[in-house]
Predict the structure.
Amino acid sequence: MSQEQTKTVLVGVTGCIAAYKACQIVRGLQKAGLRVKVVMTPHATEFVGPTTFRGLTREPVAVDLFDNPSAPIHHVSLAQEADLFLIAPCTANVMAKIAHGIADDLLTTTALACTAPLLIAPAMNVNMYQAAATQENMVVLRRRGVGFVDAQEGYLACGDQGKGRLAEPEQIVAAVLERLERSQDLRGRRIMVTAGPTQEPVDPVRYLTNSSSGKMGYAVAERALARGAQVTLVTGPASLEPPAGADVVQVRTACQMLDAAQQAFAQADAGVFTAAVSDMRPAQPSDRKLKKGSGDVLDRIELVENPDVLASLAQGRRPGQVVVGFAAETHDVLDNARAKLQRKGADFMVANQVGEGLVFGQDQNQAFFVFANKVEELPLLSKADLADAILDRVVELLP
Ligand code: CTP
């Protein structure tokens, strides 16, 4: 991939034993034709000296908030110059500060002032990685559109074994290149996403639903926003914070979802249908609470089929509108997904296996993209990365 010479990547280096690997990352980015500037936390300089990075980049290396005589407001000028801010390695502490808007050194101040995409490659001890605080900070950052090159499993400098190793420098460089190329590839496009479960009332206090968390749809919305799209998120009840910047339409039932999706899709270039829509609903929800012992519950819930949101919008679409469906299957994943692709009329289905703790509510997902003429098998990915992979295909399919 060729990058324009003018693109600048700001590399933030934090205080961690893996800081020396930032040298390889800087080299890799330069080899790809990028201009690299480095900002370090004071702790990072305990591991690698600024002189090393100065030599590698032939640029001044900033550490202290007040140490650049040529730039009066250095954190702002650094932030403005960056087309992408990569923090690698990023400690749990720096991640926590960024998640909470704390800006007490040049690196974190720059992160707060920077409007360019932020990419974080964490590195830390396995227990620090797994700590609830760290995990929650990562969720917050992802929700804001921050990209991650996730830490890897392996032997850690502290002697522990587990997740926390900095990803390989080549992988981090590849993620930067990918991110720069994608950074605004959905600008000017409108994407509609359905997400979450639906609830079909049985009576005023009961309903039929399923265990969809909405995470996948929210991740697609988040990544589409980060890539410049205008996003309408039509969501059933989910206990997630919708991504900032999306137009959010909250619905409860499948029929409401169909109405809202129809309206949003009329303006959209693409629809990604991640919602786990309830296939049926009670024909006549009771307006009084059903009472046990009266025979009500067992004898009187008659079900009728719900409209198929995906099928009805895919079949009535304008030429050029892209439609992506999901197929959650407990068995015969590919065959079932192919049948759904045909039946519903999507461009491709994202198929995965559900059941036994798989997918619903999980943060990672192993999926297949099932097209009419081919199947792509994806590796185990975070929902954010899977969302990006889906949007990559959408970009290819858009006229
Ligand atoms: N879907 C939809 N409206 C429905 C049912 C499903 O929009 N009433 C969409 C889902 O959002 C998903 C795709 O159709 O993108 C497949 O959903 P899935 O639940 O796997 O399929 P079903 O049609 O429910 O088929 P089955 O019950 O046979 O698995």
Summary: Confidence is low (pLDDT under 50) at residues 1-5.
